[in-house]
Specification:
heterodimer, A: mainly alpha, MetI-like fold, two-stranded antiparallel ribbon, 68% helix, 9% strand, B: MetI-like fold, two-stranded antiparallel sheet, 78% helix
Amino acid sequence: MNFKTFASFVGPSVFMMTLFIALPLVSVFLESFKVTQPVMQQVEVETCTPGFVGQTCVTALKTVPVIGEDGKTETITRWQGLQSYRSVLQMDKVWAAISSGNWGDILQIDFWKALRFTLMFTLVTLPLVIGVGLIIALTVNNASRAFRGPVIFVSLLPFIITPVIGSLSIYWLFVGDGILTAMMEHWTGTNISMFAQAWTIELLMYFYRVWHVAPFAFVIFYAGLQTVNMDTLESAVIDGASRLERLRHVIIPHLMPLIVFIALIHLMDSYRVFDEIIGFRSQAHVISLQWLTVDLLTPDDAGNRAVSRASASAMLTMIGIVLLLILPLRRTWRDHKGGAH
Amino acid sequence: MSETSKAMRQSFGLRFASAAFLVFWCLIAAFPIFWITVMSFKSPRDAFADSPWDVIMGPATRAAGNGLSVLDIVAGLAVLFFAIRWGFTRLPGLVARYSPGGFIALGWLLGALIYALVFLLIFFGLLPLILDPLNSVFGPLGEPVLGLTTQHYVSVWAENEFYRNFLNSMLVTAGVVTISLTVGTLAGYGLARSGSDLAFWLLILALIFRALPHSVLVAGYLPWFINSAEILRPLFGEMSPTLYGQPWAVIAVLVAINQPFTIWMLRSFFQNIPAELDEAARVDGCSHFQAFRHVIMPVMWPGVITTGLFSFLLGYNDFLVTSLLLDAQNQTMVPAIAGYFNRETTTTDQVEAVAAAVSITAPLFLLVMVFQRQIVSGLTAGAVKG
């Protein structure tokens, strides 16, 4: 295939990705150093109130936005360097918290709060997803063939459900006196509210994510288990390896490429955690980096979107995922090169 | 695995534990979805009752005059069973016979539509008409035992005009699936057959794009989309559109977001099609495009269907992009449900939100039922090659 044919096959896809992924990235990068504000001017306003005899008039200097010819407020866009990053990171407060020894205060700032949760969410759910997926795959592989179809069908449901709806369905089980909260209250005899403090919400979010992604890991591990070399397994039995040793030394190494694959995909996806915040309505207690950007982009009461701060937060989010992926990607890269030789 | 040797056979305890875990997992996997489905059919008092038994049996719903008798349940289940069986055994044959050659997909679309209409007519129209007089004849068997009401669905779909959101969802999803498959198939084929360094770097770049959080991209679109009418004016004059709030702009965005995944997946499918196939066509004098059209296209459908399913999920499940780039008039279903949060002051509103959530889940449920095999093969193909 010569270059011209290749280009015409790949062209439309590359065009879409350039226009809607690469260019927006450049735009976000530039936008994060700029700020757009309405042009303000000072005008003398005379306000009069009716009084006895005559009117009482007061003249005052007021700052009002300039209204352009089309009736909209005029805006001006200017470069402001790292100002947006500063207002997102709020380093002065961070240093103050560190120097005063109150480390907990750092987590009061939105960005650091979101970063803490996003990282913890990613790192806590990662081993759980792989572990639960592996256990389900092993047990399904153990079950008789007649049950495998229905079990796979049921397992796919949490995976395929809309994330917002999935987290809502768990939210409704626990909200107020939801059925499971009522059950726990019955057992413990205390009054429980799952959505009044951060840590219970976080637990439910971890549970939701494992529930949602473990089926994906399961299906892939299950497919991998079908190709385990039976001869190796049987010779391990003859050598007297126990069941656990066989799992540890034969099956897990065989599944290793798949485990790396799932870890990579899961790192990418769980770093993007966002839908759970909407589903569990947790913005007062727990927020994530993606949610922070979206919140800045959503119009506030006055209808303004904080685009430059959102861009700064988006750039910081992106730096995070690059840092998180560098290690696994370098590892696969080395494996890939090692395999080629 | 009955044929495995004696040494591989497991002790009873292990097998019991494994089976017990499996049952436990299935329970956890299905319970939340099952439970919100049950809740959506009850009056607010029953739906948020303390005792699970009350939620299932719905005494308050029954007291309000919305109940099903044993006879109703038996007849309803029988109709459901035969409808599903007919759908799986006879429907494919009928569709194949009556759809014009080459338009089998169109035939399926029409067939499914007619099937759904007839089913709804029989289940909700004909069945109550027959059963009402029968219930009064049969005495104790005709007494209502199970509280069940469809009023929340009626108010969600009819009064709150949820069908508008449904149509918007369908428009966006259909657009995303068609365009990303068209663009992605070409690119996937090109990448699978090229083997040049450029192709390799494109794939790596796509992998990096796959990792980008969507909010980063949306932060890039928003300023441009809102002001697009002014930016595009020198190019298109007065015709220049405001992209914000346009479904087709959202389709384009979602297609782009979906491209990295699509081209990776389709590339691995095309690599499984032997290259000798299109080389033979090339020897016979076809150009690359003719070879693609006449040799590859007839055999690529399994891969395309699987990739299409995942594109469907991306378009259908998206919350972030659609909620930020569409306005209230043409909102899709998933962000529209967030509108219930703000109004969710009474328990009736809450149950309506539950009914809306179940309405969103139902098509996905059907999707798994019909395409389970394709989904599983798609997941594994992506992993083993990827």
